[in-house]
From TrEMBL:
Substrates-to-products reaction catalysed: D-ribulose 5-phosphate = D-xylulose 5-phosphate
Residues annotated for substrate binding in this entry: 7, 65, 141-144, 174-176, 196-197
Pathway annotation from the record: Carbohydrate degradation
Enzyme nomenclature, EC number: 5.1.3.1
Record's cofactor remark: Binds 1 divalent metal cation per subunit.
Protein name per UniProt: Ribulose-phosphate 3-epimerase
Keyword annotations of the record: Carbohydrate metabolism, Cobalt, Isomerase, Manganese, Metal-binding, Zinc
UniProt: a divalent metal cation binding residues: 32, 34, 65, 174
Length: 219
């Protein structure tokens, strides 16, 4: 059964705690927190204080996606703030292996993300060191973008690599995920679906949106 990780990037920040509680009550599995620094991506979002503020609000794992340069400088502070999963971008850290070890030794699960144009070969030598492989299916920086179709084929290749090198690692797909493509993503190997606008945007309530996504993912 795939896990669903609503991304709070599309939540109403004036009511963030309520939105997270609504997602948890509706059966979300993880809460996805997009951290952006205005350098790795052309947008600035949130940092330690938001993770810290959300920690007592939910029992769900906080899945922190760092879209920042030199994430190794900050991973320990995110873990101390309450992150359960910390994902860094392969394009943003010079010593990928060391950074993954740093995340684990700080006490969190380690994730590695790749942008849509980054070769999947990057995963080959580090899959054994990570708990989560994050495949970006949009260019990182913003919610509400359209899913890049080529990501489907990349997902299949990543799943084959994962099965061969480290079957324990989960594959997370992030960007443009919704009821229209959830089943296909699961079929091709996704274990965790991140969804921002499909959960917190649109016309339905968070509960309605999440259940539509869950139904689609399990179809
Ligand atoms: O990391 C990112 C964007 O860079 C994502 O986690 C987005 O927040 C996903 O938003 P939707 O595409 O689901 O609206
Ligand atoms: Fe994300």
């Amino acid at each position: 059964m795939p896990l669903i990780a609503p991304s709070i990037l599309s939540a109403d920040f004036a009511r963030l705690a309520d939105q997270v509680r609504a997602a948890e009550a509706a059966g979300a599995d993880w809460i996805h927190v997009d951290v952006m620094d205005g350098r790795f991506v052309p947008n600035i979002t949130m940092g330690f204080v938001v993770v810290e503020a959300l920690r007592p609000v939910t029992r769900l794992p906080l899945d922190v996606h760092l879209m920042i340069v030199e994430p190794e400088r900050y991973v320990e502070r995110f873990v101390a703030a309450g992150a359960d999963v910390v994902t860094v971008h392969v394009e943003a850290t010079a010593h990928v292996h060391r950074t993954l070890q740093l995340i684990r030794s700080a006490g969190a699960r380690a994730g590695l993300a790749v942008n849509p144009a980054t070769p999947l070969d990057w995963f080959e030598d580090v899959l054994g060191e990570l708990d989560l492989a994050l495949l970006m299916s949009v260019n990182p920086g913003f919610g509400g973008q359209r899913f890049i179709p080529r990501s489907l084929e990349r997902l299949e290749r990543l799943a084959a690599l994962r099965d061969r090198v480290n079957p324990e690692a989960r594959i997370e797909v992030d960007g443009g995920v919704g009821p229209g493509n959830a089943a296909e993503l699961v079929r091709r190997g996704a274990d965790v679906l991140v969804a921002g606008s499909a959960v917190f945007g649109g016309d339905g309530t968070v509960a309605e949106n999440l259940s539509a996504l869950r139904d689609a993912a399990q179809a």
